[in-house]
Amino acid sequence: MTKVSRVLRRRHILPQTLLLIAALPLCLGLTGCAGLPKGVLTPVEVTVPRTSRVNLLVATTRAPSSDQAVLFSGERGAALQSTELTVSIPPPENRQVGQVQWPKQLPPNPATDFATTRVKALSSPGEIRGWVKQHLPRSRRVLIFVHGFNNRYEDAVYRFAQIVHDSRADVAPILFTWPSRGNVLDYAYDRESTNYSRTQLEEVLRQAAKDPMVGDITIMAHSMGSWLVVEALRQMAIRDGRVAPKISNVVLASPDIDVQVFRKQWLEQGPQRPQLTLFVSRDDKALDVSRLIGGDVDRLGQINPAAEPYRSELEKAGVTVLDLTALKGGDPLNHGKFAERPEIVRLLGERLVSGQAIAPDKIGIGSQLGIVATGAAQR
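and the corresponding structure tokens:
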């Protein structure tokens, strides 16, 4: 075998091997690599006392599934489609804040499991505006969430329902879900699916910003979804001359973005950019793998915000960074701390989603848990 062929072979095998190695702890932490239950989106009647309801508007670029219990697959759809879903959350005495409680069998037990209670396709702009009008709170705030790599449609729905419920955010919650196959070995496919979906996300953001009923928009993204959000905002700024003024706050959790590329993406949005908050963690094993695949360039979600050149650049750009490295994650990869730690989820609802600045002396939990807030928060 020639030297060139050995290099090509190594480059071909390495990303998939690394992803498989990274996935093993996660699989072991679940009920086996068969993964989570399939078909949880069939609506069920819930009569259990003290359950809660979270109603979501879900926009997707996924292809519809022939299975109505799944709704949408991991393949790419021809057009943006919207659905209203309601998720039942178990009574507080039967659940742990920060966790999605998947049913062990179907139908789910609403006393202990998340359960779907309503599914309704929204086929016209008027129906979508009607949903917004019905669910917009007095604050007139909208929260748009974009999930990350390796998420099925139902994964994204249940995770966002958990975040909305546990954060107690006073918002109208909108989920944008792109075509992820929900397979740890489909990293490249998922990454290309974010690019496939950026114009549709841009349109969702534009329509929300144009709605006179909406007063303020916060965008929250996790992992690979951060790439999609930043690309959509950059595209909007190029097309319209600036990011829509109502988009006041962007929160990127464990962003899986090459830090050098991000610098250009953010600057190219122009001087009138939204307030940016980053959640980073240097022990994020999923981003370790992404860094190796991406040519050993720092990922934005793993930077040390207290070290140069990042500290000076972040302060100059007015970016707030919360370093969660000292916190123990809820998953073996330490990739989902922002949604799994009760203190952080509540912080999202109480301050970030309402557009308030964060500083260590104002969070009330920084000294106990080792959270470090830097950037604009220090001003």
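(Above: one complete record from the training split.) The longest helix spans residues 3-29.
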